[in-house]
């Protein structure tokens, strides 16, 4: 039951994304038009300290008009190494430079609409370098005990699916 992307034409683009209209052939031979959003990869990172606390950002997302906890994240620039982008974003948004990053998981948050891949990393140490360069990205940055994460997700305090998945994976890796 595979759908086939016969062709795409660009409808709109800017430096962040492209919107294309795809001609999709269904398994029965019929065709349908389907919009596709093409995005650069996203890299995210956090650190878990010796006390099993995770560094998170509390931020507002205007599109959904919601508040929630997130990892520092952003798009990977052309030619940039994904792990390096994750480290850069973490330092810019939190003021903490991560130690060696470990891959946590890669997810496709909305693969029925976009080709976005989110690559999430974590470190076991970080160095504070000063106030965040991109302080406008969040209202605050806090160390949250990992043991609280599942209940926070259940209460809707981590609304982004990619962030919830990463935090649950960290909880599993560190606390079992």
TrEMBL record:
Q: Which organism is it from?
A: Streptomyces arboris
Q: Which taxonomic lineage does the organism of this UniProt entry have?
A: Bacteria, Bacillati, Actinomycetota, Actinomycetes, Kitasatosporales
Q: Which GO terms describe its biological process?
A: nucleoside phosphate metabolic process; ribose phosphate metabolic process
Q: Which GO terms describe its cellular component?
A: cytosol
Q: Which InterPro entries does the record match to this protein? A: NUDIX_hydrolase-like_dom_sf, NUDIX_hydrolase_CS, NUDIX_hydrolase_dom
Task: Drop me one GO molecular function for this one.
Answer: hydrolase activity
The residues covered by the Nudix hydrolase domain are 38-171
Q: What's in the keyword line of the UniProt record? A: Hydrolase
What is a single Pfam family found in this protein's UniProt entry?
NUDIX
Q: What is this protein called?
A: NUDIX domain-containing protein
Which top-rank group of organisms is this from?
Bacteria
Q: What cofactors does the UniProt entry give for this protein?
A: Mg(2+)
Checking PANTHER family in the record gives: NUDIX HYDROLASE DOMAIN-CONTAINING PROTEIN (PTHR11839:SF18), UDP/ADP-SUGAR PYROPHOSPHATASE (PTHR11839)
Where does the UniProt annotation place the signal sequence?
A: none
């Amino acid at each position: 039951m595979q759908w086939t992307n016969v062709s795409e034409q660009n409808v709109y683009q800017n430096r962040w994304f492209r919107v294309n209209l795809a001609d999709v052939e269904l398994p029965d031979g019929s065709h349908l038009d389907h919009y596709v959003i093409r995005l650069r990869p996203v890299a995210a990172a956090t650190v878990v300290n010796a006390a099993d606390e995770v560094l998170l950002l509390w931020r507002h997302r205007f599109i959904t008009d919601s508040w929630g906890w997130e990892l520092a994240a952003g798009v990977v620039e052309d030619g940039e190494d994904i792990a390096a982008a994750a480290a850069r974003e973490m330092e810019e948004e939190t003021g903490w430079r991560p130690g060696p990053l470990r891959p946590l998981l890669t997810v496709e948050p909305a693969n029925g609409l976009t080709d976005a891949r989110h690559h999430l990393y974590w470190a076991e140490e970080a160095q504070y370098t000063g106030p965040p360069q991109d302080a406008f990205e969040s209202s605050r940055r806090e160390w949250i005990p990992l043991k609280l994460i599942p209940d926070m997700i259940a209460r809707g305090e981590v609304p982004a699916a990619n962030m919830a998945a990463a935090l649950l994976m960290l909880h599993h890796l560190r606390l079992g």
